[in-house]
Automatic annotation (TrEMBL), chain A:
This is Sarcosine oxidase, delta subunit family. Pfam families: SoxD. GO terms for biological process: tetrahydrofolate metabolic process. It comes from the Bacteria. One of its GO terms (molecular function) is sarcosine oxidase activity. It comes from Jannaschia rubra. NCBIfam families: soxD. The lineage of its organism: Bacteria, Pseudomonadati, Pseudomonadota, Alphaproteobacteria, Rhodobacterales. Gene3D superfamilies: Folate-binding superfamily.
From TrEMBL, chain B:
The keyword Oxidoreductase applies. The gene is gcvT_3. This is Aminomethyltransferase. Residues 515-598 form the SoxA A3 domain. The keyword Methyltransferase applies. Residues 615-884 form the GCVT N-terminal domain. Residues 904-989 form the Aminomethyltransferase C-terminal domain. One of its GO terms (biological process) is methylation. Keywords: Methyltransferase, Oxidoreductase, Transferase. Belongs to the GcvT family. Signal peptide: none annotated. Its EC number is 2.1.2.10.
UniProtKB/TrEMBL annotation, chain C:
Pfam families: SoxG. It comes from the Bacteria. This is Sarcosine oxidase, gamma subunit family. InterPro entries: SoxG, TrmE/GcvT-like. It comes from Jannaschia rubra.
Length: 99, 997, 176
């Protein structure tokens, strides 16, 4: 069971309080009707599924109820960092250098 | 008492005898004995028959790694457990023990014939033998041959015991309370760390309990131990015994199984048998020690053949000598100390057979001083004795040749093939191992967790080395936790250091093909099996393991993995690390299902949600059905009624007069804020802008893929306030989906969502007399058809309670849904029952609700839809706003697949005479005589008897169904093919006349 | 032999009478005004509690507060918020009947909480409250003192939680 840092509560808490919510940084198009069938298909169904760093969404469902984003290593399963919804994808190299 | 007790030895309580039975014979042991130590004290070595060959077996170890001495134990009715490790289970008064895998009895076992047929049962025999003829699979192989293999019998009664669980957060968890673990815990606790120390044994001390003849920091080992434990207690260290770390999970979460009562004579009421601890530790010290390896030679499994360290444990910890005349065979120095301890306690040591050419000088002199015959550069080539070893054949090895074989009489043979660091938990963490050529053992390498490994677990030997290493690990952990601490060396006098070598099978002058040299005792795997597997093409150790089942028994190869690897790598011709080590997985030792289930059994298995009106339904004889986590009243049978009769009566009563229904489980969401209407427009397919205050509308929710997700009636209570209802099962899902869009796609919207599902109790009244029942109870709302028409909502008082009152209908009859604060739900129900008495008001359950809605063609999301149904497919295009710029799922409604012909669409199905109830889920075909496999057009989604129609009717999803109205299709069912005509889904009152009142 | 006998002291579990409860949602711009309407300053930072008279407000999320008050103050609170709605849009939803509350007190209260709550409760210092999970059910967990907790549990989940608390109390009484 993982530990997850909630960027809204600013606490590191057990995974049982959280729910996974799919890949992050997939924004719903502002005007879906303007999209071609292929573009809309990509938005609906196409995901990266990487080995390594994965940007994904979680929700602190048994807590502050906020959705937030996380970078997680799909090999070790561990979280690299978490950040608030709407914030830009973090530059992990720079973050590691700073630590 | 028994003849093999040694006076002055052991830690068992000689003042307290404990009586138990083994295979019906009564025995006495002492408090603190295990089953094995107590039986050995009576000279009983034979404790079971082996898995495949039914060979006589006795204990080979003295701990949980034991592969042989597995017994059935019973602590009373329902408390039978198979495969209890006799070497770990403590005695308790009245414990009933039985041996396993034997018939008619342990000493004469018919299944022992398997042993003579061993050539048939070699590696992979399942794959080779159980192939043909086909008819033998069910009649011979499964019932007879399989039944002859295996260990123990499963318990037959429900487990009456309780199981518990807790979470524990600790700064430092130390796994294993041997010398290294104790030293680590003490170093960290002295530095101020908060420490938890645990051990699987009944008491702490580890190897010190088995091998106490040393002096630590000036004190005899056991005195030193008592002092340390007292100090740990003084420092507030949490000490847990009889507790096994079964798994090591992400981020220092360690699962512990604590055995609380199996050792107690009298179990306190309400005491759990075992407790699962889910421990989260900031740091972990693994001090699990090392496991002794057997040597592999012909007849190494005979009762009386055991690990030298085990014999030393039985002597020093339990005061039991395992025999009167022992032979030692070893490749490691440690067995010498076992031999010396046994010799000093009165066991005649007939010989020490050292496979190495030059034993350590001091050890050789100690042996000589005791008059022990030391045979260096020797091997063991076989044993004799049917139910107990009688002699061992030893031979000289020189220049690769085995010569001068001779028998040495003995009643026990103590072997030591070196020690394997116990790395199971470390492996659970995905920590990597590296092979140490000098030690011929795998050692921990990269660690994926914040853990330290101390002592014999990382290949160290001797007390001074392990104690000091434990101290260093404790200091390192404390420093990592922010404390200040200094390492210190722990001095040991009379230390017992040692080294050794690792072997494949011992050399022999016999025929290797005939040798019964066991590698895995529990699964009856021999060295020959492993070599055969390699000959037959297995190269990876993972393949060898699965082909031979080496290491696949419940001990996970604690004693067999390295020996198996040494033999396999020799056969493959590669170094051990190139052949690899199999993966250890949790649990470390077999763990009861009860411990994993914990509190979640019986009535507490899962949450059962009940409405405020549930108690009334129960006291009025309702039958219940589960709907998501809820239990809902299904129907209310009267005396003598079956379900069909009750439902037909409830339906008729509702259509003819009035019915009352508990709808409290419906999901309810308060949508409030200046942007509430905009939010509703974006989420639901329907247009909301023009919905007046006080009005309600059916709302349809799609996923972004265009498929129906949920539906419900939504009322507008104020300009900025909507009362949204969802399906019972969809409540949490819909709120989650709404929050997702609101928080992450449209954070600019000023609107907030609050679940009010459980704030309100909801009661539906339906039927032509519904208004007459309700009106007298309503204050603050004109109930006339003009003032409160169909699809209205108002805030008022009902039966004196504040209420949100809807006029809506899921039945096609005049209908109301009354929401009151949940605490008043039951009182409102009773008031309505009273008011409705003159109209014979009829309580109905979910089944009648389903029938009545189906008669109107109303869908149940999840029953008539399956996640691939669009509004158009379900005849709900009318609910989709045509002029809206966007809503969730709108773009998908134009996807090529969603506009293509041949979609499965919702239609009615009527059989000819209406007497047949089509099965829900039954497939539908155009021509029942077509060749198989038939083309299936769809399936029946809903099927009921309709009291109003006087016949059965059904709904179905059928390919291109909307174009097929009037066509005949067929529904194959177990009793034959039924023809049915496709109709619309408006079965009853299609014009909606009954609502116009 | 070490005998693992813990000397566990008592714990009591009580049902509490309902009080008036609201879920308050308001954006940053309206926070001060909303607090003023309650006669206090809304706490910021999840888990912080502010009290005023018999009213207590806990911050459950960045824009979410749980307001508790005596039943007699319910209507006044509703009316006060109604008057500020136009200038200070918010959502005030009465949830007095949504949850039932249990109080758990006594020297073994902390241990009893650990049978269902995966959080490190030592970090939930007295005076604070959080939404968390207890044996699968969402709860609001209040720590009123070192050895006093309250659990607000959704009405239909409450018997399940209560059942486990009772089981745990019996287990503690058994001393193992």
């Amino acid at each position: 069971m993982l530990l997850i840092h909630c960027p809204y509560c600013d606490e590191t808490l057990p995974e049982l309080e959280f729910a996974y919510a799919g890949e992050a940084h997939i924004e719903r198009p502002k005007d879906p009707s303007a999209l071609s069938d292929e573009e809309w298909r990509d938005f609906l169904f196409i995901r990266t599924n990487p080995k390594g760093t994965h940007y994904e969404r979680w929700r602190h469902v048994h807590g502050c109820a906020r959705y937030f984003n996380a970078a997680r290593d799909t090999v070790s399963d561990k979280f690299l960092t978490t950040y608030r919804a709407g914030e830009a994808r973090p530059d992990l190299d720079r973050k590691e250098a700073a630590e | 008492m028994s003849t093999y007790r040694v006076s002055g030895k052991g830690r068992v309580n000689r003042g307290e005898t404990v009586r138990f039975t083994f295979d019906g014979t009564s025995y006495e042991g002492y408090r603190g004995d295990t089953i094995a130590s107590a039986l050995l004290a009576h000279g009983v070595h034979l404790m079971g028959r082996s898995f495949k060959y039914h060979r006589p077996r006795g204990p080979v170890a003295a701990g949980t790694e034991e592969p042989n001495a597995l017994v059935g134990t019973s602590r009373g009715k329902g408390r039978f457990e198979p495969n209890t490790r006799a070497t770990a289970q403590e005695l308790r008064r009245g414990l009933t023990v039985e041996s396993q895998n034997k018939w008619p009895n342990l000493k004469f076992d018919v299944g022992g014939i398997n042993d003579r047929m061993y050539m048939l049962f070699s590696a992979g025999f399942y794959y080779k033998t159980f192939m043909w003829p086909r008819s033998f699979w069910d009649r011979v192989y499964e019932p007879i041959i399989r039944a002859a293999a295996g260990l123990g019998r499963p318990p037959e009664d429900l487990d009456p015991d309780r199981y518990a669980s807790r979470y524990l957060h600790t700064d430092l968890l130390v796994v294993g309370a041997g010398p290294a673990g104790i030293a680590a815990a003490l170093a960290a606790a002295r530095a101020g760390a908060e420490v938890t120390l645990m051990d699987e044994h009944a008491e702490m001390g580890g190897s010190l309990l088995s091998d106490p003849d040393v002096t630590i920091e000036g004190a005899p080992a056991w005195e030193w131990l008592a002092t340390q434990l007292a100090e740990l207690d003084r420092l507030g260290v949490r000490r847990m015994t009889r507790t096994t770390a079964i798994g090591y999970y992400h981020q220092n979460m360690v699962g512990l199984c604590e055995k609380l009562t199996d050792h107690l004579d009298d179990v306190p009421a309400d005491a759990p048998r075992e407790r699962m601890w889910r421990v989260r530790a900031n740091r972990v010290v693994l001090a699990q020690g090392a496991l002794e390896k057997p040597l592999v030679f012909d007849g190494n499994d005979r009762p009386g053949v055991m690990l030298a360290g085990a014999a030393q444990t039985y002597l020093n910890r339990y005061g039991v000598k395992v025999g009167d005349r022992a032979v030692i065979v070893t490749s490691h120095d440690s067995a010498y100390y076992a031999a010396f301890d046994l010799a000093d306690a009165g066991t005649r040591i007939a010989a020490i057979v050292d496979t190495r050419d030059t034993p350590r000088d001091d050890l050789a002199q100690e042996a000589k001083r005791r008059g022990i015959d030391l045979l260096a550069g020797h091997t063991v080539t076989g044993t004799s004795g049917r139910l107990r070893v009688k002699s061992v054949r030893v031979a000289r090895v020189s220049g690769g040749k085995v010569t001068d074989g001779r028998a040495v009489a003995c009643d026990c043979l103590l072997m030591c093939g070196g020690w394997t660091p116990s790395l199971h938990l470390f492996s659970h963490t995905k920590g990597t191992l590296k092979f140490d050529d000098a030690l011929q053992a795998f050692l921990p390498d990269y660690s994926a967790e914040d853990c330290h490994i101390a002592g014999a677990g990382r290949g160290l030997w001797g007390y001074e080395a392990t104690l000091s290493d434990g101290n260093a690990a404790g200091v390192a952990a404390a420093v990592a936790l922010g404390h200040e601490a200094q390492e210190s060396r722990i001095e040991v006098q009379g230390d017992r250091p040692g080294t050794g070598v690792t072997h494949k099978e011992l050399p022999t002058d016999g025929q290797p093909g005939r040798a019964r040299a066991f590698v895995d005792f529990q699964n009856d795997v021999t060295a020959k099996d492993i070599r055969l597997a390699v000959r037959e093409g297995m190269r990876s150790i993972e393949h060898v393991k699965r082909y031979t089942t080496n290491g696949m028994a419940t001990d996970q190869g604690k004693m067999s993995n390295i020996n198996g690897l040494m033999i396999a790598s020799d056969a493959v011709g590669k170094a051990p690390p190139q052949v690899g080590l199999t993966t250890f997985r949790p649990p470390y030792t077999p763990t009861t299902f009860g411990t994993f289930a914990g509190y979640h059994r019986g009535g507490h298995f899962e949450v059962t949600r009940k409405t405020p009106i549930d108690a009334w339904a129960e006291s009025h004889g309702a039958a219940f059905e589960p709907v998501s986590l809820w239990r809902r009243a299904w129907y209310f049978p009267k005396a003598g009624e079956d379900m069909d009769a009750a439902v037909a009566r409830e339906c008729a009563a509702t259509r003819n007069s009035v019915g009352i229904f508990d709808a409290s489980t419906l999901g309810k969401i308060e949508v409030q804020g200046p942007d509430a209407v905009e939010f509703m427009n974006r989420m639901y397919t329907n247009p909301w802008t023009k919905l007046g205050i006080g009005r309600a509308r059916y709302g349809l929710l799609l996923g972004e893929d265009g498929f129906i997700r949920d539906d419900g009636v939504i009322g507008r209570l104020a300009q900025d306030l909507f009362h949204v209802t969802t399906t019972t099962g969809g409540a949490a899902r819909v709120l989650t989906m709404m929050e997702d869009y609101l928080q992450t796609e449209w954070p600019d919207l000023d609107v907030w969502l609050t679940s009010t599902t459980e704030q309100w109790a909801t009661i539906a009244l339906n039927g032509p007399n519904a208004r007459r029942v309700l009106e007298p109870l309503v204050e603050g709302q004109d109930m006339s058809a003009e003032a409160f028409p169909h699809m209205s909502v108002a805030e008022c008082r009902v039966a004196g309670f504040p209420a949100r009152l809807f006029r809506i209908s899921f039945t096609g009859e005049l209908g109301f849904e009354i929401n009151v604060p949940a605490r008043h739900g039951l009182a409102l129900w009773e008031a309505l029952m009273k008011s409705g008495a003159q109209y014979d008001i009829c309580p109905y359950g979910t089944e009648t609700m389903h029938v009545l809605r189906a008669e109107k063609g109303f869908i149940i999301v999840g029953q008539d839809t399956d996640g691939t149904v669009t509004p158009g497919d379900a005849n709900l295009s009318w609910a989709v706003g045509k002029k809206k710029p966007d809503f969730v799922g709108m773009r998908s409604l134009a996807r090529p697949d969603l506009v293509a012909p041949g979609r499965k669409q919702l239609v009615g199905l009527m059989t000819g005479d209406g007497k047949v109830k089509l099965e829900e889920g039954a497939q539908i075909v155009a021509d029942p005589n077509q060749p198989k496999p038939m083309k299936m057009l769809g399936h029946v989604t809903s099927s009921y008897y309709s009291a109003a129609l006087g016949r059965h009717f059904a709904m179905a999803l059928i390919e291109g169904g909307h174009e097929m109205e009037g066509r005949e299709v067929y529904v194959p069912m177990p009793d034959g093919n039924h023809a049915a005509k496709i109709t619309t889904t408006a079965f009853y009152d299609p014009e909606g006349e009954r609502l116009k009142v | 032999m070490t005998n693992q006998k813990h000397d566990f002291p008592w714990v009591t579990i009580e049902d509490l009478a309902p009080d008036a409860r609201f879920s308050l949602r308001v954006g940053e711009a309206g926070r001060d005004r909303a607090g003023l309407t309650l006669g206090l300053s809304l706490p910021t930072g999840v888990s912080n509690v502010v009290r005023h008279g018999e009213r207590a407000v806990v911050c459950l999320g960045p824009d979410e507060w749980l307001v508790t008050a005596p039943e007699g103050e319910r209507d006044a609170i509703v009316e006060a918020f109604a008057t500020i709605y136009d200038q200070t849009p918010h959502s005030l939803v009465e949830i007095s009947d949504r949850e039932l509350t249990y109080r758990i007190t006594g020297p073994a209260a902390f241990t009893l909480m650990t049978i269902g709550c995966p959080r490190d409760l030592s970090r939930l210092t007295p005076g604070r409250a959080v939404r968390t999970v207890f044996d699968g059910a969402t709860v609001i967990l209040w720590r009123d003192a070192e050895d006093a907790f309250r659990l607000d549990v959704w009405r239909s989940f409450a018997p399940h939680v209560r059942d486990l608390l009772d089981t745990g109390r019996a287990e503690l009484a058994a001393g193992l």
